[in-house]
């Protein structure tokens, strides 16, 4: 079955520390991959996306993600976390031209001062 | 350039009632998708509208229906409300055939509480 898994429900990091949020997918072919961020009471904002080509993609707010086909993963990273990064992060996939975007359950990020 | 606008922002309904949620897509977008996000969960795809027709549907019962107007705005209707329908309902807009390529633009959602 097609699925998106975010293994970490909640992560806490200190401000200034590095961050990595994990995402694994299960699809027959390489899907289109996205990371979104959601602040409390808000909609989702697109951080970055991957379709093809360079497996390391850069996004907004200093985030990047690396696609690893062999591991079916698309992990989100940031070298130095800011207090304003505290939010819920969602990994999402669409299998090609299918418009059914599937989301993981999300990872809640807490940033300690 | 206005983003995706949803109304109302919050509402409370009683079990068995019907509700209508509204969405205006981002300027230039012609496709609207609806998602249900239960507390602590990721968004779940309800359906997508393009050219005033339902183009694709997720695993939701027929109590959930929608409509798209000629100006691309959309409504989500839910009949016979259940307590389990309590959630944040998100509207996302995109360009036809490019949803996968460019991702969606999401509204801030409508928080529905069923009591």
Architecture blueprint of SSEs:
The complex is a heterodimer of chains A (113) and B (115).
Chain A (H helix, E strand, L loop, with lengths): L2 E3 L4 E5 L4 E3 L2 E3 L5 E7 L5 E7 L5 E3 L5 E5 L4 E6 L8 E8 L7 E2 L3 E6 L1
Parallel strand pairs in A: 2-12
Antiparallel strand pairs in A: 1-4, 3-9, 5-6, 5-10, 7-8, 8-9, 10-11, 10-12
Chain B lengths: L4 E3 L2 E4 L5 E6 L6 E7 L6 E7 L2 E5 L6 E5 L5 E5 L8 E8 L4 H4 L2 E2 L3 E5 L1
Parallel strand pairs in B: 2-11
Antiparallel strand pairs in B: 1-3, 3-8, 4-5, 4-9, 5-6, 7-8, 9-10, 9-11
Short description:
The complex is a heterodimer of chains A (113) and B (115). Chain A has 113 residues and is mainly β.
Commentary on this structure:
The complex is a heterodimer of chains A (113) and B (115). By secondary structure, chain A is mainly β. Chain A has one domain: Immunoglobulin-like (Sandwich). Helix content of chain A is 0%, strand content 51%. Chain A has strands at 3-5, 10-14, 19-21, 24-26, 32-38, 44-50, 56-58, 64-68, 73-78, 87-94, 102-103, 107-112. In chain A, strands 2, 5, 6, 10, 11 and 12 form a six-stranded mixed beta sheet that branches. In chain A, strand 5 (32-38) and strand 6 form a beta hairpin. Chain A is globular and about 40 Å long. The model of chain A has no long low-confidence stretch (mean pLDDT 91). Chain B has 115 residues and is mostly beta strands. Chain B has one domain (5-114): Immunoglobulin-like, CATH 2.60.40. Chain B is 3% helix and 50% strand. Chain B has one helix at 99-102; strands at 5-7, 10-13, 19-24, 31-37, 44-50, 53-57, 64-68, 74-78, 87-94, 105-106, 110-114. The longest helix of chain B has 4 residues, at 99-102. Chain B is globular. The mean pLDDT of chain B is 92. Chain A binds chain B through residues 4, 32, 34, 36, 41-46, 49, 51, 90, 92, 94, 96-106, and chain B through 4, 31, 33, 35, 40-45, 48, 55-56, 58, 90, 92, 97, 99-109, 111.
């Amino acid at each position: 079955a097609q699925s998106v898994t975010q293994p970490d429900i909640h992560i806490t990091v200190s401000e200034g520390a590095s961050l990595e949020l994990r995402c694994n997918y299960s699809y027959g072919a390489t899907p289109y991959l996205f990371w979104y961020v959601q602040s409390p009471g808000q909609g989702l904002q697109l951080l970055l996306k991957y379709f093809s080509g360079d497996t390391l993609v850069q996004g907004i707010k200093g985030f990047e993600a690396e696609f690893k086909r062999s591991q079916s993963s698309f992990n989100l990273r940031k070298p130095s976390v800011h207090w304003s990064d505290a939010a819920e992060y969602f990994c999402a996939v669409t299998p090609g031209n299918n418009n059914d975007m599937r989301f993981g359950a999300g990872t809640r990020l807490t940033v300690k001062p | 350039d206005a983003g995706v606008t949803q109304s109302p922002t919050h509402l409370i309904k009683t079990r068995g009632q019907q509700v209508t949620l509204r969405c205006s897509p981002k300027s230039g977008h012609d496709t609207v998708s609806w998602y249900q996000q239960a507390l602590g969960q990721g968004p779940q795809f309800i359906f997508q509208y393009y050219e005033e027709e339902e183009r694709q549907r997720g695993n939701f019962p027929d109590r959930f229906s929608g409509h798209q107007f000629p100006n691309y705005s959309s409504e989500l209707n839910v009949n016979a409300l259940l307590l389990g329908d309590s959630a944040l309902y998100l509207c996302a807009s995109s360009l036809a055939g490019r949803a996968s390529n460019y991702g969606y633009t999401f509204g801030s959602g409508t928080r529905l509480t069923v009591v």
